[in-house]
């Protein structure tokens, strides 16, 4: 009888499939759903462990012991393809179990990794790497993983209640686009299992399909101005709030809540057409994130992301940290009204401006509890 795959938390699942065409660079997930954390297929390795008088659960909870066991038995494991694959899955599950925000992922190229955005570990060659590693190299690998495991995950804030009326998305125009031959282009479903052709990554046809983003942005600005106690500035100069100067600006609006610890928001409409949102001290979000034919996006996805971010900021759901660590990295997280979240592991700041970074550091240092919810407009409770 095959050993039960119950060493790790939750039900064992199949490895993740590659992301669907059109998925953007950012990661959006519900706070309670951080992807696949327990992959099936490691039962043969459990049997191998017990055959060698070793308790699998002990190895799963002791990374140095697991690495030592694998190095001792690597050649034997690699003689059996199925056993080698099972051991690799076990290692991946062990790494994922070390941090609550870790997960299994498969890239567009079909490469399976485990870990987080700042520590994506390719699991397939792990046995070869451990077999060839010197004792010092193996020890450094363990130390690096343990350092990663002990790091604080990026904060995903809980969204406070918002004392506002409901926001309703305005109707978006129904648009039909055709090829030069007259065939309807099914944006959002253009490419099959083989994915987009290489040449589609450098082609942008019908960017006007994102015109509805301007409609949504205008509705959000009106909603925020009517719902919260804010000052509204309509002037091209407020586009300087962005960390990168946009080309082809159509409209620029800054909304500043009358609360010293609430995050300001700047919404810039561009003629591509698109929208760029600046929130808080350093966070910029351009939408759509990509309009090439290969990504195959429709207006609905970026429109929802725009709404989620803007309402998250107004609800006090944005968090930023700068500087992070000796590298002086930047990280952010935000949670939308329906629980959808986005975050970025520590990385290079979005600007090289020393003045801008100093201002951000000073501003964020004065927010012991993070950005606060916007105050309701007079007459609202």
Provide a concise account of the structure shown:
This protein has helices spanning 43-51, 56-60, 63-78, 81-96, 126-132, 135-150, 212-227, 300-314, 354-365; strands spanning 28-30, 103-106, 112-116, 119-122, 230-234, 249-257, 265-270, 274-279, 283-287, 318-324, 329-335, 340-347.
Describe the 3D structure.
Among the domains are: 28-150; 198-313, no CATH class. It has nine helices and twelve strands. The chain has helices spanning 43-51, 56-60, 63-78, 81-96, 126-132, 135-150, 212-227, 300-314, 354-365; strands spanning 28-30, 103-106, 112-116, 119-122, 230-234, 249-257, 265-270, 274-279, 283-287, 318-324, 329-335, 340-347. A hairpin with a 3-residue loop joins strand 7 (265-270) and strand 8. Helix 1 (43-51) crosses helix 4, helix 3 (63-78) packs antiparallel against helix 4 (81-96) and helix 7 (212-227) packs parallel to helix 8. The longest helix is centred in the N-terminal third of the chain and has 16 residues, at 63-78. Residues 1-23 are annotated as: Disordered. It holds the Pfam family DUF6226. InterPro entries: DUF6226 (IPR045773).
């Amino acid at each position: 009888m095959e050993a039960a795959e119950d060493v790790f938390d939750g039900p064992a699942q199949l490895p993740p499939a590659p992301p669907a065409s059109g998925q953007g660079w950012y990661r959006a997930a519900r706070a309670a759903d951080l992807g696949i954390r327990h992959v099936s297929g490691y039962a043969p390795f459990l049997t191998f462990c017990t055959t060698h008088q070793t308790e699998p659960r002990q190895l799963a909870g002791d990374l140095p012991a697991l690495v030592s066991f694998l190095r001792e038995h690597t050649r034997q494991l690699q003689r059996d393809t199925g056993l080698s694959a099972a051991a690799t899955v076990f290692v991946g599950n062990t790494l994922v179990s070390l941090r609550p925000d870790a997960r299994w992922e498969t890239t567009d190229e079909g490469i399976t990794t485990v870990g987080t955005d700042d520590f994506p570990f390719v699991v397939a060659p792990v046995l070869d790497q451990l077999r060839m590693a010197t004792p010092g190299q193996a020890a450094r690998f363990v130390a690096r993983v343990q350092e990663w495991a002990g790091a604080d995950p990026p904060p995903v804030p809980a969204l406070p209640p918002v004392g506002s009326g409901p926001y309703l998305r305005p109707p978006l125009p129904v648009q039909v686009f055709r090829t030069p031959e007259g065939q309807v282009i099914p944006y959002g479903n253009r490419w099959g299992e083989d994915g987009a052709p290489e040449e589609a990554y450098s082609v942008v046809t019908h960017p006007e399909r994102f015109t509805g983003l301007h409609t949504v942005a205008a509705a959000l600005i009106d909603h925020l101005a009517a719902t919260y106690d804010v000052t509204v500035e309509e002037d091209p100069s407020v586009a300087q709030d962005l960390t990168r100067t946009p080309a082809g600006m159509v409209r620029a609006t800054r909304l500043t809540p009358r609360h010293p610890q609430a995050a300001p928001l700047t919404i810039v409409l561009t003629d591509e057409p698109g929208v760029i949102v600046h929130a808080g001290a350093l966070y910029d979000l351009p939408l759509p994130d990509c309009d090439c034919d290969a990504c195959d996006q429709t207006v609905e996805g970026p429109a929802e992301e725009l709404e989620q971010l803007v309402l998250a900021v107004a609800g006090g759901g944005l968090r930023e940290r700068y500087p992070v660590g000796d590298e002086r990295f930047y990280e952010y997280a935000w949670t939308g009204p329906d629980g959808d979240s986005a975050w970025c592991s520590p990385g290079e700041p979005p600007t090289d401006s020393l003045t801008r970074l100093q201002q951000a550091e000073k501003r964020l240092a004065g927010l012991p509890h993070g950005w606060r919810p916007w105050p309701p407009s007079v007459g609202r409770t």
